[in-house]
Amino acid sequence: MSGWTVKETAPAKGAASGRGASARADADARADDGTAKDLAIAPVIAPVDLGPIHIPTPVVLSPMAGVTNWPFRVLCEEYGPSGLYVAEMITARALIARNPKAFRLCRFAPSEKIRSLQLYGVNPAIVAQAAQMVVDGGMADHIDLNFGCPVPKVTRRGGGSALPWKMDIFRELISRVVAVCAKANIPVTAKIRVGIDHDHETYLEAGHIAQEEGCAAVTLHARTTAEYYGGHSDWYRIAELAQSLDVPVFGNGDIWGADDALAMVRQTGCAGVAVGRGCQGRPWLFADIKHAFEGSTERTNPNLGEVGRVIMRHARLLVDFFDGEERMAVHDLRKHIAWYLKGFPVGGTTRKAFMECESLADVEREIGRLNPELSLPERVIDTPRGRIRYAKKVHLPYGWLNSRGTTRAEREALFGDDPMDAGY
Q1: What's 221's DSSP letter?
Q2: N or C: which end of the chain has fewer CB within 10 A?
Q3: Exposed/middle/buried for 375, CB within 10 Å: 0-12, 13-18, 19+?
Q4: What is the pTM of this model?
Q5: How far apart are CA 424 and CA 406, in angstroms?
Q6: Are 40 and 390 in contact, with CB atoms under 8 Å apart?
């Protein structure tokens, strides 16, 4: 780690007092199932401004590949506060190659208040070119940069959460994109992880570089690449980064319910929260978070009949997303149905029947066979969702960890084997 300092001294890990220590010291304020216990009083959460964009309630739908296309964003935004609902990651080279799928992913519904895109790439020139396309085409109001993806096919080429290790590329990429977007007054933000592993942490350096190069905010997923999505995220790191930066810091990791969002803000002092896997199959989680930050204890626990109506609406929106291709829409819906039904005692036969649906009529038929009065058992409400996956090994380019910068030859090799292919 280089010697970044914090505005307030963050307490040592495990300390029982102080703003930064509370994520560790208050671990026993979280129940055995990982959810937060306390929370009678909502913490103060102020609006956040990202350049010209005003976010009254700084709650973010994190971009998730294959999940946060506009139909799902619309559902989340309808339930939630006036926050930021980010489109899934767009590969920069695919965008400049005018790949049809990339352009489909860039679409926004008329109802979306803020058009927010996330770009991914390794080559600063290519990502800047993609940003220029977004600016010239009036395609978005906000651009987020992906430095948090831990997937091996991304990191083995130096992308995602591997990239902040190479500070020269990281700095240049942000600088170029900010310069492009500044002309159109489009704010740029960055999403990062704690580091590659605990021997190679980068979050404080990366946060400062992002701030210095003009990012309007930084989101920290409080896990390393090596931790993938396993175990518990370390909220202490969010507190440390929030203390260290002047720009807003959004915390991400293990927000499974509204009380977790309250706890994260209270324990870390972050400016807002970013919700990922916790809302899979639960777009109404954003309603719960909205109520929580308003000081209300109202929570949403829809019965299976209400869930079925959301599934059907989601299905019809996906048909629009896929330009009337009903079969494609229903195939895309299958993973969402698995999430929607998670925790409900519906049985394997029912789940299998949904996975074999090929049309809206099939989906509607299977919804009609559900018991609409079933409610989610109390024991599974606000528990972790999505697969809890650990990376067995972090895949990186050869010699990646040998230095914090790149030589000309290393750049030529890296960009010559550019992961930002034009396909999906």
Answers
A1: E
A2: N
A3: middle
A4: 0.88
A5: 28
A6: no
Residues 6 or more apart whose CB falls under 8 angstroms from that of 229 comprise 150, 223, 277, 386, 387, 388, 389, 390
Q: What 8-state DSSP symbol labels residue 375? A: -
187, 216 Cβ separation under 8 angstroms: yes
Specify the 3-state DSSP secondary structure of 87.
strand
Question: Around Cβ 154, how many Cβ atoms within 10 Å?
Answer: 25
Tokens 């698995």 correspond to: 338
Element (H, E) at 331: helix 326-341
Rg (CA), the chain: 21
d(CA 148, CA 194): 9
Rounded distance between C-alpha atoms, residue 117 and residue 107, angstroms: 10
- Let me know: does 213 contact 175? Beta carbons within 8 Å: yes
Determine how many CB atoms are found less than 10 A away from the CB of residue 378.
Answer: 8
Which positions ≥6 away from 328 have C-beta within 8 Å?
322
Question: Whole-angstrom Cα distance, residue 309 to residue 363?
Answer: 11
Kindly list the distances between the CA atom of residue 143 and the CA atoms of 46, 51, 278, in Å, as whole numbers in the listed order: 22, 12, 23
Catalytic residue numbers read: 149
Task: Label the pairing between strands 53-55 and 48-50.
Answer: antiparallel
Give 342-384 pLDDT, tens digit per residue: 999 999 999 999 999 999 999 999 999 999 999 998 888 888 8
C-alpha span between 280 and 107 (Å, rounded): 21
| Residue 286 one-letter amino acid | F
**Do strands 249-252 and 272-275 pair parallel, antiparallel, or not at all (unpaired)?**
parallel
187 with 51: CB under 8 angstroms? yes
Q: Which residue has the tokens 């005018």?
A: 98
